[in-house]
Each structure stands twice: as structure tokens, then as C-alpha cells.
Automatic annotation (TrEMBL):
Pfam families: ParA
Physiological role: Binds and transfers iron-sulfur (Fe-S) clusters to target apoproteins. Can hydrolyze ATP.
Record: residues binding ATP: 29-36
Organism lineage string: Bacteria, Pseudomonadati, Candidatus Omnitrophota, Candidatus Danuiimicrobium
Species this protein is from: Candidatus Danuiimicrobium aquiferis
One GO term of the biological process aspect: iron-sulfur cluster assembly
Protein name per the record: Iron-sulfur cluster carrier protein
GO molecular function list: 4 iron, 4 sulfur cluster binding; ATP binding; ATP hydrolysis activity; ATP-dependent FeS chaperone activity; metal ion binding
Length: 290
């Protein structure tokens, strides 16, 4: 890292994120497990209750947020100081690498460049006041994930997995990465857990079921819930109106909203405990100095 970059790394992100109350990373070990879909619908679920919410799409390999929010051909607005302002769709503020390079050419991310480009990107966004900022992380546990987890003051992380063993193995790795860098794991979500037949209401466990709950218990993190396979999730995401916005009363949408509430409660409890610990320390210091 150059000294100029280091300077940016240290000074800029905290300044620009000072108006953000909670920053939640949504992560997965593997791609394609529904991480962006979960991040989008959780954000919408939380915003339904009046919170100011944003999503930062950090998926350098294939940003999906522009498509899911109907902003595929939109570009970011930039001011004279090269600061970038989020776009907005369905009441959620959005920023994506897809808005910066929105042609069909993939950005080639070479190892040493990943850190520098991500930091520059993260440092340039003006969010304003927010209650929740959800980060849609790239899948895996490589350089990009480490850069983000270590340069942004994360309130917590949510891990998304599907029930198959190949996904669970990598979800476990992602979970341990957050524990290693001392980011609280708010819990694990098992996506595509089962399928309810729309004709006969019979439940089929297409990819097995229950692995998410099992590794949550094993690694002692909360299990946030199971989300069924639903073709409406795909359709709504592809149309640019995620299911929580399109069909807020559907079973799947209610599940996303419940998980959003559970995350919000955990964050508030953690915040209260931190204040309490701080107050206790102040009291101890005051007693010592008497
Ligand atoms: P990731 O971010 O992990 O790569 P995406 O969120 O892009 O995954 O989802 C991959 C595909 O799976 C998308 O087509 C999405 O619509 C679909 N998908 C996600 N969750 C569900 C679900 N619960 N039921 C059906 N399809 C889903």
C-alpha cells in the first residue's frame, strides 16, 4: 500500500460513514447462494419500518444490485471533488461498482489492485444520514473481503448459505473469517431451504435442509432462519423489484422482514451493552479518582 493510499484508508471511510448507525455485511462462502437477493430483501424489509437504509454492492466479480433494483444502465453522479452520490430505488439508497463501470466489460481485478481500488471506491461515497448500511460482499474469503472487513467499522455480519454441503463448508470458512477479525456474527441464513408446491402445498427438501441450523449451533452463532425456494424471488429480482417490494405480504417477504427485525434487535442490544460497559468503566474510573 502506498503512503497516499494508507492516508485515504485511515482518514476517509470513517468520516464519510460517520452518519451511518449500523453497518451490516452480508457474506457467503460461495457465489450463487442468494447473498445479493438476501441483502436486497433484508434492506427493503428493514426500510418498511421507516428506517433510512442503503446497500453498498461490493461484489467485484459480478455486481447484481443494479439489476435487482432496476438500475442496470444507470451511472453514478459525481461532484467536482470526485465524491459519488448513491442512486435510489424502492426507497433504498444504492451504490454499486456496476454504476461506475456499467458496460458489459468485466473489470479485471488483479491481486494488488483490489485493495487500492476498493479503498478508493469506499472512500468516495457520500451516504448522508443512514440507520442501516448493508454491504453485499463478494463471495469467499479473499483479499477483497479482508480489505472491506478491516477498513469499514462493521457492526456485524450475516452469512448466507444454501443447504448443500459444498456451500456449508465455505459458509463455515466465511463465518470464521469474521470471528477472526472480531466482527460480531449476527447469524446465519439458510436460503433455498425447501420448496412448497403451489398446487398441493407439499414441502420438498430439494437440496436437503437443516445444515445452516446445524453449523450455527456448532459455531455458536444465532440461526436467523430458513428461506424457501420460490420462483417469484427470481422473477422479481430479474424485473428490478425485489419480492419484498413487489409482494410484501408473501410468505417469503414476511420471512425476510422477520429476519431484518431480528438483526435490528441484536444490533440495538449490542449497542446498549457497549454503552453500559462504557458507563461502567466511567463509574470505575470516577470511583478510583475519588
Ligand atoms: P449471490 O449473490 O450469492 O451470487 P444471487 O442473490 O445473485 O446470489 O442469487 C442467485 C440466483 O438465485 C438469482 O437468480 C436469484 O434470483 C436466485 N435466488 C436467490 N434466492 C432464491 C430463493 N429463495 N428462491 C429462488 N431463487 C432464489
Amino acid at each position: 500500500m502506498t503512503s497516499k493510499c494508507k492516508e485515504k484508508f485511515i482518514t476517509n471511510p470513517p468520516d464519510l460513514l460517520s452518519g451511518v448507525r449500523y453497518i451490516v455485511a452480508v457474506a457467503s462462502g460461495k457465489g450463487g447462494v442468494g447473498k445479493s437477493t438476501v441483502a436486497s430483501n433484508l434492506a427493503l424489509g428493514v426500510s418498511k419500518f421507516g428506517s433510512k437504509v442503503a446497500i453498498l454492492d461490493c461484489d467485484i466479480y459480478g455486481p447484481s444490485i443494479p439489476l435487482m433494483f432496476g438500475l442496470l444502465n444507470s451511472s453514478v453522479k459525481m461532484n467536482a471533488e470526485q465524491k459519488m452520490f448513491p442512486l435510489e430505488s424502492h426507497g433504498v439508497k444504492l451504490m454499486s461498482l456496476g454504476f461506475v463501470s456499467n458496460d458489459q466489460t468485466p473489470i479485471i481485478w488483479r491481486g494488488p489492485m483490489v485493495h487500492q481500488i476498493l479503498i478508493q471506491f469506499l472512500s468516495s461515497i457520500v451516504w448522508g444520514d443512514l440507520d442501516y448500511l448493508f454491504l453485499d460482499l463478494p463471495p469467499g474469503t479473499g483479499d477483497a473481503q479482508l480489505t472491506i472487513t478491516q477498513s469499514i467499522r462493521l457492526s456485524g455480519a450475516v452469512i448466507v448459505t444454501t443447504p448443500q454441503e459444498v456451500s456449508l463448508i465455505d459458509a463455515r470458512k466465511a463465518l470464521k473469517m469474521f470471528q477472526k477479525v472480531n466482527v460480531p456474527v449476527l447469524g446465519l441464513i439458510e436460503n433455498m431451504s425447501y420448496f412448497i408446491c403451489p398446487d398441493c402445498a407439499k414441502t420438498s427438501e430439494i437440496f436437503k435442509r437443516g445444515g445452516g441450523r446445524r453449523i450455527s449451533e456448532e459455531l455458536q452463532v444465532p440461526f436467523l432462519g430458513e428461506i424457501p425456494i420460490d420462483s417469484e424471488v427470481v422473477k422479481s429480482g430479474d424485473e428490478g423489484t425485489p419480492i419484498v417490494a413487489k409482494q410484501p405480504d408473501s410468505v417469503v417477504s414476511k420471512r425476510y422482514s422477520e429476519i431484518g427485525i431480528a438483526i435490528g434487535i441484536q444490533l440495538k442490544v449490542m449497542e446498549r451493552n457497549r454503552h453500559r460497559d462504557k458507563n461502567d468503566l466511567v463509574q470505575i474510573e470516577m470511583k478510583k479518582n475519588k
